[in-house]
Amino acid sequence: MNSKHQRVRLSDGHFIPILGFGTYAPKEVPKSKATEATKIAIDAGFRHIDSAHLYQNEEEVGLAIRSKIADGTVRREDIFYTSKLWCTFHRPELVRPCLEGSLKKLQLDYVDLYLIHFPMALKAGESDFPTDENGKVIFDTTDLCATWEAMEKCKDAGLTKSIGVSNFNRRQLEMILNKPGLKHKPVCNQVECHPYFNQGKLLDFCKSKDIVLVAFSALGSHRENRWVDQNSPVLLDDPVLASMAKKYKRTPALIALRYQIQRGVVVLAKSFTEKRIKENIQVFEFQLTPEDMKVLDGLSRNVRYIIGAPFAGHPNFPFSDEY
């Protein structure tokens, strides 16, 4: 209960720490902040670090991990590191090069978890967001099952311990699960999940298939224009979270994080502020009552912060289905 190294078993036998440190930051945040914050997080007790090709900070995050290994704070096997395959690398022949590119930046021999970041393929090339002359994102058509087979090969080659997906809906998960000749099933699905959007149906489905749900934007969102609906309510200002925070003598953020842990959801806490990073690890020091868990379940109001507007017309756009 109070172990800050609480872990969840994945279907392939590996273990993922239930609390993770998210490293995404909007463009205007200097990349060096990722090094600083990741070091603080590891010193505070975080052992699960989440990044991606798209975040363009893997050199900085890798530097932090390696410096904490070098100073004896952790060993490589103590750290659970997640990276993600970006949409412009969905073609099977590009999957391994994308992962190898991340490993080169990180200067690590393997990642612990590699995810397909979104189910939508974009045109391959230099740009992460290829656009036409009208500024519209250029889609690509790649069979998700073929992308998955290339992911399986990365696992077999030892470049990643586990493989999973992110932002997939039930239909897309089933497409992979029902694939003829499936060798390794996705161990997890990383999706937006918080008290305003608790993903109850998707969580139940994932549990029934032994797929771990990993929650991003668990504290609401950074509210970056490109991704986020600017009219959406601010989660951490919610009066219910505020009154519970008072009751447990914790922060609203800790209430939101604890809620996920008690549902069996692996949760990513994202902050580049030292005080908050250290605060977030206190999530293991208290427990919410079943009654309070029910109250928090009742906050869900279908508020999705990350709406993925640039991708809305894509045939594999995942957010049109109910879950």
UniProtKB/TrEMBL annotation:
Annotated binding of substrate, by residue: H117
Species: Nannospalax galili
Family of the protein in this entry: Belongs to the aldo/keto reductase family.
Active site feature: Y55
Record InterPro entries: AKR (IPR020471), AKR1C (IPR044482), Aldo/ket_reductase_CS (IPR018170), NAD(P)_OxRdtase_dom_sf (IPR036812), NADP_OxRdtase_dom (IPR023210)
Top-level division of the source organism's lineage: Eukaryota
Alphabetical list of Gene3D superfamilies matching this protein: NADP-dependent oxidoreductase domain (3.20.20.100)
Protein name, per record: Estradiol 17 beta-dehydrogenase 5-like
GO molecular function annotations of the record: oxidoreductase activity
Ranges that cross the membrane: none
Keywords: NADP, Oxidoreductase
NADP-dependent oxidoreductase domain sequence ranges: 19-299
Keyword hit for Transmembrane: no
